Write a sequence for this structure.
């Protein structure tokens, strides 16, 4: 539309003979009878830190005689500003809102390369003019580590936090591992793109150890980067304590944590309601830290204890005594 066209008509008989044409006539369809050129909104010359590119245009103005007819859009992406070397062409992209339409392009882009794109609208009756040509540059994602720390608490758990910097818009996932290396480490948790700044708690630490942690960052391009190691400094409890057994009631096993502020001697024993010892969970020297104790519902000879209420009593050589009730259900 808004272009002058010339035409004439000539007859052809059954033998293929062409008659004289009519005089040349001309016509210029009104520009308002086709969708206007859409306006590129993003990206327009800015750098993109990803290989999934969202191209967005401001919607075309609809044809005057078809104000309710929506357009579809054709996007052309090329490696040159004349759009001759086409990388991708996508048609029939529908209007996604009253104001804009978006195409999410694939991963056919190369880092550090500049690409050019434009779009045009088609309302099914007329095709509008092509938009202005704009460009974007795909830059590689460069991830940096600004903070990575791990610290144990008085209950034997480890709090791990980190902060990634750099061009982290292209981060796909962040995984945390515990072990001497990430390759043979135990997966602790995995975050999505939001994992560039996160904190998590590791409850599975073997007591008495100083665990080591690694981060594995995966970019949308598939490139992975590892950071670490960082070793957790385990906290030393300030006083003796025995945590509530969990689960309680239980079957077949319950666990509790014994916090020890200093080296010494300790005994932890399970008694029945008559005050008779059933099972010794700990007896002897003990080091500072948090120790996990488990009772599997067995007596000292390895036989199943009967259902009922039992008393767990912990004693230290410094005179501290702790006790609690637990219930075994068979």
């Amino acid at each position: 539309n808004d272009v002058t066209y010339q035409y004439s008509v000539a007859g052809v008989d059954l033998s293929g003979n062409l008659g004289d044409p009519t005089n040349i006539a001309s016509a210029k369809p009104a520009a308002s009878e086709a969708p206007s050129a859409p306006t590129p909104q993003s990206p327009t010359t800015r750098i993109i830190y990803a290989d999934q590119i969202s191209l967005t245009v401001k919607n075309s103005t609809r044809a005057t005689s078809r104000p309710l007819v929506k357009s579809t859009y054709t996007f052309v992406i090329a490696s040159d500003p004349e759009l001759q070397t086409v990388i991708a062409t996508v048609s029939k992209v529908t209007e996604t809102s009253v104001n804009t339409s978006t195409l999410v392009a694939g991963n056919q882009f190369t880092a550090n390369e500049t690409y050019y794109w434009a779009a045009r609208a088609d309302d099914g009756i007329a095709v509008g003019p092509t938009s202005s040509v704009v460009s974007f540059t795909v830059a590689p994602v460069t991830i940096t580590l600004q903070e990575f720390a791990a610290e144990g608490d008085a209950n034997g758990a480890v709090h791990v936090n980190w902060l990634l910097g750099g061009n982290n818009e292209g981060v796909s996932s962040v995984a945390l591992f515990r072990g001497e290396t990430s390759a043979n480490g135990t997966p602790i948790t995995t975050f999505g793109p939001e994992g560039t700044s996160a904190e998590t708690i590791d409850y599975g630490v073997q007591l008495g150890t100083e665990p080591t942690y690694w981060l594995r960052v995966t970019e949308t391009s598939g490139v992975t980067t590892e950071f670490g190691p960082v070793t957790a400094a385990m906290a030393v409890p300030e006083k003796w304590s025995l945590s509530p057994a969990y689960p309680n009631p239980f079957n077949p096993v319950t666990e509790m944590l014994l916090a020890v502020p200093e080296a010494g001697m300790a005994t932890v024993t399970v008694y029945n309601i008559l005050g008779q010892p059933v099972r010794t969970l700990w007896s002897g020297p003990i080091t500072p830290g948090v120790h996990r104790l488990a009772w599997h519902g067995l007596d000292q000879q390895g036989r199943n204890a009967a259902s009922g209420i039992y008393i767990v009593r912990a004693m230290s050589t410094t005179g501290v005594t702790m006790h609690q009730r637990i219930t075994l259900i068979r």
Q: What stands out?
A: The first strand starts at residue 5 and ends at 7. The chain has a mean pLDDT of 86. The two ends are 85 Å apart (CA to CA). The CA atoms of residues 144 and 165 lie 5 Å apart.
